[in-house]
Protein backbone atom coordinates (compact mmCIF):
# COMPACT_ATOMS: atom_id res chain seq x y z
CA UNK A 1 0.00 0.00 0.00
CA UNK A 2 1.30 3.44 -0.86
CA UNK A 3 1.36 6.65 1.04
CA UNK A 4 -0.45 9.63 -0.46
CA UNK A 5 1.91 11.60 -2.66
CA UNK A 6 0.54 14.30 -4.92
CA UNK A 7 1.99 14.45 -8.39
CA UNK A 8 1.46 16.48 -11.53
CA UNK A 9 -1.54 15.29 -13.52
CA UNK A 10 -1.04 14.82 -17.27
CA UNK A 11 -2.63 17.59 -19.28
CA UNK A 12 -4.68 15.09 -21.27
CA UNK A 13 -6.83 14.53 -18.19
CA UNK A 14 -8.01 18.13 -18.10
CA UNK A 15 -11.25 18.74 -19.96
CA UNK A 16 -12.68 22.10 -18.88
CA UNK A 17 -16.43 22.37 -18.44
CA UNK A 18 -17.42 26.02 -18.01
CA UNK A 19 -20.72 27.78 -18.59
CA UNK A 20 -20.44 31.47 -17.89
CA UNK A 21 -23.48 33.66 -17.31
CA UNK A 22 -23.94 37.32 -16.64
CA UNK A 23 -24.41 36.80 -12.91
CA UNK A 24 -21.80 34.12 -12.40
CA UNK A 25 -20.96 30.58 -13.39
CA UNK A 26 -22.88 27.33 -13.61
CA UNK A 27 -20.83 24.19 -13.05
CA UNK A 28 -22.65 20.86 -12.88
CA UNK A 29 -25.76 22.61 -11.63
CA UNK A 30 -23.95 24.73 -9.02
CA UNK A 31 -23.83 28.51 -9.16
CA UNK A 32 -20.32 29.89 -8.67
CA UNK A 33 -19.85 33.66 -8.26
CA UNK A 34 -17.55 35.58 -10.57
CA UNK A 35 -13.92 35.24 -9.56
CA UNK A 36 -14.12 31.48 -8.92
CA UNK A 37 -14.11 29.40 -12.08
CA UNK A 38 -13.60 25.72 -11.40
CA UNK A 39 -12.50 23.13 -13.92
CA UNK A 40 -14.13 19.72 -13.76
CA UNK A 41 -11.61 17.65 -15.64
CA UNK A 42 -13.33 14.28 -15.80
CA UNK A 43 -17.03 13.54 -16.27
CA UNK A 44 -17.83 10.05 -15.09
CA UNK A 45 -20.62 7.91 -16.47
CA UNK A 46 -23.98 7.52 -14.75
CA UNK A 47 -23.22 3.83 -14.22
CA UNK A 48 -19.89 4.69 -12.63
CA UNK A 49 -21.52 7.26 -10.39
CA UNK A 50 -24.20 4.80 -9.32
CA UNK A 51 -21.59 2.14 -8.60
CA UNK A 52 -19.69 4.64 -6.46
CA UNK A 53 -22.81 5.62 -4.56
CA UNK A 54 -23.02 9.15 -5.93
CA UNK A 55 -26.78 8.92 -6.29
CA UNK A 56 -26.89 9.15 -2.52
CA UNK A 57 -23.70 9.04 -0.56
CA UNK A 58 -20.33 7.67 -1.48
CA UNK A 59 -19.47 4.70 0.72
CA UNK A 60 -15.94 3.49 1.23
CA UNK A 61 -14.90 0.38 3.11
CA UNK A 62 -12.35 0.63 5.88
CA UNK A 63 -9.63 -0.74 3.59
CA UNK A 64 -9.90 2.55 1.68
CA UNK A 65 -7.76 3.95 4.49
CA UNK A 66 -4.15 3.77 3.38
CA UNK A 67 -1.34 3.33 5.92
CA UNK A 68 1.53 5.75 6.23
CA UNK A 69 5.03 4.33 6.40
CA UNK A 70 6.40 4.67 9.96
CA UNK A 71 9.69 6.01 8.61
CA UNK A 72 7.95 8.69 6.56
CA UNK A 73 5.45 9.96 9.10
CA UNK A 74 4.30 13.53 8.49
CA UNK A 75 2.93 15.42 11.43
CA UNK A 76 -0.49 16.99 10.97
CA UNK A 77 0.76 20.27 12.41
CA UNK A 78 -0.56 22.68 15.01
CA UNK A 79 -2.71 24.92 12.82
CA UNK A 80 -6.38 24.13 13.12
CA UNK A 81 -9.25 24.17 10.66
CA UNK A 82 -11.44 27.25 11.03
CA UNK A 83 -14.74 26.46 12.74
CA UNK A 84 -17.61 28.33 11.07
CA UNK A 85 -20.68 29.52 13.01
CA UNK A 86 -22.86 26.81 11.42
CA UNK A 87 -20.59 24.00 12.69
CA UNK A 88 -18.80 23.31 9.39
CA UNK A 89 -15.04 23.48 8.95
CA UNK A 90 -13.11 25.61 6.47
CA UNK A 91 -10.07 23.79 5.04
CA UNK A 92 -7.30 25.92 3.57
CA UNK A 93 -5.22 24.68 0.61
CA UNK A 94 -2.22 26.62 1.90
CA UNK A 95 -1.15 23.79 4.22
CA UNK A 96 -1.16 20.04 3.72
CA UNK A 97 -2.96 19.40 7.00
CA UNK A 98 -5.32 21.21 9.34
CA UNK A 99 -6.25 19.79 12.73
CA UNK A 100 -9.94 19.29 13.50
CA UNK A 101 -9.55 18.37 17.18
CA UNK A 102 -12.02 15.51 16.62
CA UNK A 103 -11.03 12.26 18.38
CA UNK A 104 -12.53 9.12 16.82
CA UNK A 105 -13.01 5.68 18.37
CA UNK A 106 -12.57 2.36 16.63
CA UNK A 107 -15.83 1.16 15.08
CA UNK A 108 -17.43 4.57 14.66
CA UNK A 109 -18.76 5.60 11.25
CA UNK A 110 -17.18 8.75 9.87
CA UNK A 111 -19.08 10.75 7.23
CA UNK A 112 -17.70 13.81 5.45
CA UNK A 113 -19.41 15.99 2.85
CA UNK A 114 -17.38 18.69 1.11
CA UNK A 115 -17.90 21.58 -1.28
CA UNK A 116 -15.81 24.39 -2.68
CA UNK A 117 -12.90 24.75 -5.08
CA UNK A 118 -9.14 25.02 -4.85
CA UNK A 119 -7.06 26.80 -7.47
CA UNK A 120 -3.40 25.87 -7.81
CA UNK A 121 -0.16 27.63 -8.66
CA UNK A 122 -1.52 31.21 -8.68
CA UNK A 123 -2.83 30.59 -12.17
CA UNK A 124 -5.13 33.08 -13.93
CA UNK A 125 -8.80 32.86 -13.03
CA UNK A 126 -10.27 29.75 -14.65
CA UNK A 127 -7.06 27.69 -14.67
CA UNK A 128 -6.31 24.73 -12.46
CA UNK A 129 -9.34 25.07 -10.17
CA UNK A 130 -10.72 21.80 -8.86
CA UNK A 131 -13.50 20.52 -6.64
CA UNK A 132 -12.88 18.16 -3.70
CA UNK A 133 -12.23 15.16 -5.98
CA UNK A 134 -9.31 16.94 -7.61
CA UNK A 135 -8.70 16.80 -11.38
CA UNK A 136 -9.99 13.23 -11.75
CA UNK A 137 -13.53 14.41 -11.10
CA UNK A 138 -14.95 11.46 -9.15
CA UNK A 139 -14.34 8.48 -6.89
CA UNK A 140 -13.85 5.90 -9.65
CA UNK A 141 -10.06 6.35 -9.62
CA UNK A 142 -8.83 5.83 -6.06
CA UNK A 143 -5.12 6.20 -6.85
CA UNK A 144 -4.03 8.84 -4.31
CA UNK A 145 -0.91 9.70 -6.27
CA UNK A 146 -3.00 11.23 -9.05
CA UNK A 147 -4.97 13.47 -6.72
CA UNK A 148 -3.64 17.01 -7.00
CA UNK A 149 -5.71 19.53 -4.98
CA UNK A 150 -8.12 16.84 -3.75
CA UNK A 151 -9.53 16.87 -0.22
CA UNK A 152 -7.79 14.21 1.86
CA UNK A 153 -8.01 13.02 5.45
CA UNK A 154 -5.74 11.55 8.05
CA UNK A 155 -6.25 9.67 11.31
CA UNK A 156 -3.38 9.78 13.81
CA UNK A 157 -3.67 6.94 16.31
CA UNK A 158 -1.36 5.97 19.13
CA UNK A 159 0.24 3.10 17.18
CA UNK A 160 -0.87 3.74 13.61
CA UNK A 161 -1.50 6.57 11.16
CA UNK A 162 -3.47 6.37 7.92
CA UNK A 163 -4.38 8.79 5.17
CA UNK A 164 -7.38 8.57 2.85
CA UNK A 165 -9.11 10.31 -0.02
CA UNK A 166 -12.22 12.26 1.03
CA UNK A 167 -13.41 13.98 -2.14
CA UNK A 168 -16.96 15.35 -2.14
CA UNK A 169 -18.35 12.53 -0.03
CA UNK A 170 -16.80 9.90 2.20
CA UNK A 171 -18.19 7.29 4.59
CA UNK A 172 -16.23 4.58 6.37
CA UNK A 173 -16.09 2.66 9.60
CA UNK A 174 -12.98 3.64 11.49
CA UNK A 175 -10.69 0.65 12.17
CA UNK A 176 -8.76 2.29 15.04
CA UNK A 177 -9.05 5.31 17.27
CA UNK A 178 -7.25 8.56 16.61
CA UNK A 179 -7.49 12.27 15.83
CA UNK A 180 -8.85 13.46 12.49
CA UNK A 181 -7.02 15.97 10.30
CA UNK A 182 -8.15 17.21 6.90
CA UNK A 183 -6.07 18.72 4.13
CA UNK A 184 -5.35 19.25 0.46
CA UNK A 185 -3.12 16.95 -1.55
CA UNK A 186 -0.38 18.90 -3.30
CA UNK A 187 3.39 19.22 -3.53
CA UNK A 188 3.62 23.00 -2.99
CA UNK A 189 0.85 24.68 -1.02
CA UNK A 190 2.08 28.26 -0.72
CA UNK A 191 0.71 29.33 -4.11
CA UNK A 192 -2.78 27.81 -3.81
CA UNK A 193 -6.03 29.69 -3.26
CA UNK A 194 -9.66 28.87 -2.54
CA UNK A 195 -11.05 26.62 0.18
CA UNK A 196 -13.07 23.50 0.92
CA UNK A 197 -15.95 23.67 3.41
CA UNK A 198 -16.79 20.36 5.06
CA UNK A 199 -19.56 18.85 7.14
CA UNK A 200 -18.52 16.02 9.43
CA UNK A 201 -20.78 13.44 11.07
CA UNK A 202 -19.94 10.63 13.45
CA UNK A 203 -22.41 7.72 13.72
CA UNK A 204 -24.93 9.81 11.81
CA UNK A 205 -24.78 12.81 14.16
CA UNK A 206 -23.08 16.16 13.48
CA UNK A 207 -19.58 16.18 14.94
CA UNK A 208 -19.15 18.46 17.92
CA UNK A 209 -16.10 20.65 17.47
CA UNK A 210 -14.72 22.84 20.19
CA UNK A 211 -13.56 26.32 19.30
CA UNK A 212 -9.90 26.68 20.12
CA UNK A 213 -9.26 28.20 23.51
CA UNK A 214 -7.37 31.46 23.26
CA UNK A 215 -4.46 32.22 25.54
CA UNK A 216 -4.49 35.37 27.62
CA UNK A 217 -2.59 38.26 26.05
CA UNK A 218 0.58 39.18 27.88
CA UNK A 219 3.38 41.73 27.76
CA UNK A 220 5.98 38.93 27.91
CA UNK A 221 8.54 38.64 25.11
CA UNK A 222 7.56 35.37 23.40
CA UNK A 223 10.61 35.04 21.14
CA UNK A 224 12.55 32.63 23.43
CA UNK A 225 9.65 30.12 23.46
CA UNK A 226 8.57 30.41 19.81
CA UNK A 227 8.97 27.26 17.72
CA UNK A 228 10.53 27.01 14.23
CA UNK A 229 8.16 25.83 11.48
CA UNK A 230 8.42 24.97 7.78
CA UNK A 231 12.17 24.55 7.28
CA UNK A 232 13.43 27.74 8.87
CA UNK A 233 17.02 27.83 10.15
CA UNK A 234 17.30 29.55 13.54
CA UNK A 235 20.25 30.79 15.59
CA UNK A 236 20.86 33.34 18.35
CA UNK A 237 22.93 36.41 17.44
CA UNK A 238 23.48 39.57 19.54
CA UNK A 239 20.37 38.98 21.62
CA UNK A 240 18.09 38.33 18.64
CA UNK A 241 16.83 35.16 17.00
CA UNK A 242 18.18 35.01 13.49
CA UNK A 243 16.10 33.22 10.84
CA UNK A 244 17.05 32.15 7.35
CA UNK A 245 15.09 30.12 4.81
CA UNK A 246 15.54 28.36 1.53
CA UNK A 247 13.95 30.14 -1.42
CA UNK A 248 11.37 27.36 -1.90
CA UNK A 249 10.36 27.05 1.77
CA UNK A 250 6.60 27.33 2.41
CA UNK A 251 5.92 29.99 5.08
CA UNK A 252 9.06 29.53 7.19
CA UNK A 253 8.58 31.15 10.59
CA UNK A 254 8.90 31.13 14.31
CA UNK A 255 5.41 30.55 15.76
CA UNK A 256 4.03 31.00 19.24
CA UNK A 257 2.97 27.94 21.19
CA UNK A 258 -0.12 29.90 22.29
CA UNK A 259 -3.13 30.86 20.22
CA UNK A 260 -4.72 34.28 20.59
CA UNK A 261 -7.99 35.97 19.72
CA UNK A 262 -8.89 39.65 19.26
CA UNK A 263 -8.75 42.24 20.61
CA UNK A 264 -4.96 42.13 20.65
CA UNK A 265 -1.88 44.10 19.75
CA UNK A 266 1.11 42.33 18.20
CA UNK A 267 4.38 44.20 18.70
CA UNK A 268 7.50 42.95 16.91
CA UNK A 269 10.98 44.44 16.76
CA UNK A 270 12.73 42.99 13.71
CA UNK A 271 15.07 43.67 10.80
CA UNK A 272 15.84 42.11 7.42
CA UNK A 273 19.07 41.93 5.47
CA UNK A 274 17.20 42.32 2.18
CA UNK A 275 13.51 41.52 1.75
CA UNK A 276 10.49 39.92 3.38
CA UNK A 277 9.79 40.55 7.00
CA UNK A 278 6.61 38.52 7.26
CA UNK A 279 4.32 38.65 10.28
CA UNK A 280 1.60 35.98 10.55
CA UNK A 281 -1.73 35.83 12.33
CA UNK A 282 -4.93 33.99 11.42
CA UNK A 283 -6.35 31.67 8.81
CA UNK A 284 -3.77 28.87 8.57
CA UNK A 285 -0.83 31.22 8.23
CA UNK A 286 -2.32 33.13 5.30
CA UNK A 287 -3.16 36.13 7.43
CA UNK A 288 0.06 38.09 7.16
CA UNK A 289 1.86 41.37 6.69
CA UNK A 290 4.75 41.51 4.21
CA UNK A 291 7.33 44.29 4.37
CA UNK A 292 9.98 44.64 1.62
CA UNK A 293 8.04 42.22 -0.55
CA UNK A 294 10.39 40.58 -3.06
CA UNK A 295 8.12 41.50 -6.00
CA UNK A 296 7.41 45.16 -5.10
CA UNK A 297 9.36 46.27 -2.03
CA UNK A 298 7.46 49.56 -1.72
CA UNK A 299 4.07 47.80 -1.55
CA UNK A 300 2.75 46.59 1.79
CA UNK A 301 1.07 43.22 1.34
CA UNK A 302 -1.80 42.64 3.75
CA UNK A 303 -3.48 39.23 3.84
CA UNK A 304 -6.64 39.42 5.91
CA UNK A 305 -6.48 37.30 9.11
CA UNK A 306 -10.10 36.15 8.72
CA UNK A 307 -10.40 35.53 4.98
CA UNK A 308 -6.88 35.39 3.58
CA UNK A 309 -7.81 38.01 0.95
CA UNK A 310 -4.74 39.95 -0.22
CA UNK A 311 -4.50 43.74 -0.49
CA UNK A 312 -1.57 45.73 -1.87
CA UNK A 313 -0.95 49.15 -0.31
CA UNK A 314 1.21 51.45 -2.41
CA UNK A 315 4.22 53.17 -0.82
CA UNK A 316 3.54 51.53 2.56
CA UNK A 317 5.70 48.40 2.58
CA UNK A 318 9.33 49.52 2.48
CA UNK A 319 11.56 49.40 5.57
CA UNK A 320 15.28 50.16 5.78
CA UNK A 321 17.48 47.10 5.46
CA UNK A 322 19.74 46.02 8.34
CA UNK A 323 17.94 48.30 10.79
CA UNK A 324 15.54 47.23 13.52
CA UNK A 325 11.96 48.44 13.16
CA UNK A 326 9.05 48.45 15.59
CA UNK A 327 6.03 46.90 13.92
CA UNK A 328 2.60 47.08 15.55
CA UNK A 329 -0.35 45.04 14.27
CA UNK A 330 -3.57 45.92 16.05
CA UNK A 331 -6.54 43.62 15.54
CA UNK A 332 -9.89 44.41 17.12
CA UNK A 333 -13.16 42.51 16.75
CA UNK A 334 -14.05 44.55 13.65
CA UNK A 335 -11.01 46.71 12.81
CA UNK A 336 -7.34 46.33 12.00
CA UNK A 337 -4.41 48.76 11.96
CA UNK A 338 -0.71 48.48 11.05
CA UNK A 339 2.05 50.84 12.20
CA UNK A 340 5.82 50.91 11.63
CA UNK A 341 8.05 53.03 13.89
CA UNK A 342 5.01 54.97 15.08
CA UNK A 343 3.67 55.74 11.60
CA UNK A 344 0.39 54.28 10.43
CA UNK A 345 0.76 52.26 7.24
CA UNK A 346 -2.71 50.69 6.92
CA UNK A 347 -6.12 50.33 8.52
CA UNK A 348 -9.33 48.55 7.52
CA UNK A 349 -12.59 47.11 8.81
CA UNK A 350 -13.37 43.38 8.96
CA UNK A 351 -14.88 40.67 11.12
CA UNK A 352 -12.14 39.14 13.27
CA UNK A 353 -14.29 37.92 16.16
CA UNK A 354 -13.86 34.22 15.32
CA UNK A 355 -10.11 34.26 14.67
CA UNK A 356 -8.06 32.11 17.06
CA UNK A 357 -4.50 31.66 15.88
CA UNK A 358 -0.83 31.49 16.79
CA UNK A 359 1.36 34.45 15.90
CA UNK A 360 4.42 33.99 13.70
CA UNK A 361 7.27 35.93 12.16
CA UNK A 362 9.77 34.89 9.55
CA UNK A 363 11.75 35.46 6.36
CA UNK A 364 10.94 34.32 2.83
CA UNK A 365 12.63 33.65 -0.49
CA UNK A 366 16.13 33.43 0.94
CA UNK A 367 16.09 36.51 3.15
CA UNK A 368 17.42 36.67 6.70
CA UNK A 369 15.29 38.17 9.47
CA UNK A 370 16.40 38.93 13.03
CA UNK A 371 13.75 39.41 15.71
CA UNK A 372 14.57 40.86 19.13
CA UNK A 373 11.10 40.72 20.62
CA UNK A 374 7.52 39.75 19.88
CA UNK A 375 4.77 40.62 22.33
CA UNK A 376 1.04 39.88 22.10
CA UNK A 377 -0.56 42.39 24.41
CA UNK A 378 -3.99 43.81 25.20
CA UNK A 379 -5.62 46.31 22.86
CA UNK A 380 -7.52 49.35 23.99
CA UNK A 381 -10.45 49.52 21.53
CA UNK A 382 -10.37 53.32 21.72
CA UNK A 383 -6.94 53.30 20.04
CA UNK A 384 -8.50 52.15 16.79
CA UNK A 385 -10.47 55.40 16.65
CA UNK A 386 -7.44 57.70 17.02
CA UNK A 387 -6.66 60.08 14.13
CA UNK A 388 -4.57 58.60 11.33
CA UNK A 389 -0.85 58.92 11.90
CA UNK A 390 -0.88 58.65 15.71
CA UNK A 391 0.25 55.74 17.84
CA UNK A 392 0.46 54.88 21.48
Any chance you could write out the topology, listing elements then pairs?
Blueprint: E1 19-20, E2 25-27, E3 30-32, H1 46-52, E4 66-67, E5 82-83, E6 89-91, E7 97-104, E8 109-119, E9 129-130, E10 151-156, E11 161-165, E12 169-173, E13 178-184, E14 193-202, E15 205-206, E16 227-229, E17 232-237, E18 240-245, E19 253-255, E20 264-272, E21 277-281, E22 288-291, E23 300-303, E24 310-313, E25 325-331, E26 335-340, E27 343-349, E28 359-362, E29 368-377
Antiparallel strand pairs: 1-2, 2-3, 4-11, 5-6, 6-14, 7-13, 8-9, 8-12, 8-14, 10-11, 10-13, 14-15, 16-19, 17-18, 18-29, 19-28, 20-25, 20-29, 21-22, 21-28, 22-23, 23-24, 25-26, 26-27
Describe this entry's structure for a reader.
By secondary structure, the chain is mainly beta. It has 2 domains: 196 residues, Galactose-binding lectin (Jelly Rolls); 163 residues, Exo-inulinase, domain 1 (Jelly Rolls). It is built from 1 helix and 29 strands. Strands 5, 6, 8, 9, 12, 14 and 15 form a 7-stranded antiparallel sheet that branches. Strands 16-19-28-21-22-23-24 form a 7-stranded antiparallel sheet, with no helix packed on it. The chain has a 7-stranded antiparallel sheet with strand order 17-18-29-20-25-26-27, with no helix packed on it. Strand 1 and strand 2 form a beta hairpin. The longest helix has 7 residues.
